Amino acid sequence: MARPVDALNLASGIARDIDEVTGEMEVFTPPPLVEVLDTIRMVGDLGIRRPDPDEGLTWAHVEKELDLIGFMVERGLLLQGVTFSREWMVNVMLLIRYGDSYPGWLNPDTRYEMSQTFGAAILDLKGSPYIRTIFTDWYIQLPCEEQATHLWAELSTLRNDFAHCGMREYPPRGRHG
Predict the structure, then answer these.
(1) Where do the domains of the chain lie?
(2) Which of 9, 47, 55, 74 lies 20 to 30 A from 1 at CA?
(3) Number of H helices, E strands in the chain
(4) Is residue 65 helix, strand or coil?
């Protein structure tokens, strides 16, 4: 689950072919494995694949990513859901900036700059100095800038809490009860 798009791409292939082998599986495998078939079908139905390099990142793809985040959270995969949510936010912002079918969405420098832009916006909200990025001027003009910045801050806090195994002086759950 650390590479959900790749994992689901493979799972969708399994789910696509599962009906052909279900009968044999029911005869030759133990009952607990047969019960997993419905779950495999459900994961395959998410239908998420890494976009074709010629197609680039699309709004349809980020909608499927959001479905995957919901799937993770519903199943208690909170670390994966939170981590993937941050990547999803970068994808959404790149689409807002560059439009549908953006081919450079996996460029590590571009993704880094966008994530640094979120971090700079958090510092700006706190009145702290920050380093401008190639996206700063564009980002601060967005009507959703403040909401996106607050969401990034919350996701970052949760992600850091997971990454540090809750070993922080003021973990998020301690502030909220």
Answers:
(1) 51-175
(2) 55
(3) 8, 0
(4) helix
